[in-house]
Request: fold
Amino acid sequence: MHSNEDKPIFGIHPIKEALENGKSVDRLFIQERTQNDMLKELASLARMMEIPVKYVPEMKLNRITRKNHQGCVAFLAPIDFQPLDEVIQQVYERGETPLIVVFDGITDVRNLGAIARSALCSGAHALVLPFKSSAPVNADAVKTSAGALLQIPVCKPKYINEAKQLLKTYGIPLIACHGKAQKTIYQASLDAPAAIVIGDEEKGISEQMLRSCDDEVKIPMLGNFDSLNVSVAAGITLFEAVRQRAGGK
Reply:
């Protein structure tokens, strides 16, 4: 998997073009106290796309690059996002059974990194992150993932509803994993194509996402405690899929 290694781009038009073309921009630095309307528009566009904007002294921008930065420098995310349809096609072409992890409202980079590690180790084929309201795929996330985010395809579709429909078109049902489900992971058909939906551990999976799911499963809990860290829950569910696919169902 290709790494951008925190590569900077600079200049108003190159950065605007990168944003509009869906490049995976990690953060944007803009010269502080600027009155430039084009820089203000650039900052507004970045915020709309939920890209962090930081106002810094001109000296800091000059340290990053000696070229004409026009008062702005952006850093690309450490990875290039993959088109979901191409990833799925490649999985089927290899004769494999798709196993996808879909994120819903997970904003903590540590959880993103930990889930990526479990996903890679369990043979999952891709991670699907919402375009907005999702943990950033930045250097911290890559570090937490122990490099897994550089190896597993990560898809960040602009419209999550289109991604959900695409999965269903390819015969990959959405399976919500949450504590209030009636069925356990041991009763689910995880040896068939599956897109496992993981939600924020405080808010859970959103109602909108739940309505789109084809099945709901839970991890059976013993004892008096019924809460697992979201990355642990994801790992348990993914390795139940591994067990079933190895003929253990």
Q: What stands out?
A: The two ends are 33 Å apart (CA to CA). The chain has two domains: 8-76, 84-248. Residues 1-5 have pLDDT under 50 and may be disordered. The longest strand covers residues 25-31.
